[in-house]
Design a protein that fits this description.
The chain has 112 residues and is mainly alpha-helical. The protein is built from three helices and two strands; from the N terminus they run ββααα. The chain starts with 5 loop residues before the first strand and ends with a helix.
Length: 112
């Protein structure tokens, strides 16, 4: 134990101030790691959502080019996705959307 170790006035146990600092740092680092993990999960899911919305829009436009009307698609329950360009809104970062090759191939197969 270091010479500056003191008796805690409530517990009557001795403690080392640097041990408290190490423990506090561990708590803060664990909380920050948890928060960073949550932000990462959100970013991954938003990226997947944007790719999915793009794939839905591609399939939707393919259906319209094949002769379906907006009214018919709405009647079938296939309205535009709320955040999609075809719904009149822009996707948050349309230039950054990466459509997975499998999703794009599936959308192209629906078009042709």
């Amino acid at each position: 134990m270091r010479p500056e170790a003191q008796v805690h006035y409530l517990s009557r146990h001795t403690f080392d101030p640097s041990d408290s600092a190490v423990a506090a740092k561990a708590i803060i680092e664990a909380e920050m790691a948890h928060r960073m993990d949550l932000v990462h999960q959100l970013a991954v899911r938003l990226s997947a959502l944007e790719a999915t919305i793009t794939a839905v829009d591609i399939a939707r436009h393919a259906a319209i080019e094949a002769g379906w009307t907006e009214a018919q698609l709405l009647e079938l329950g296939l309205g535009a996705v709320e955040n999609s360009p075809s719904a009149g809104r822009r996707v948050a970062r349309p230039d950054d959307v990466v459509v997975e090759p499998a999703v794009e191939a599936e959308a192209e197969s629906l078009a042709g």
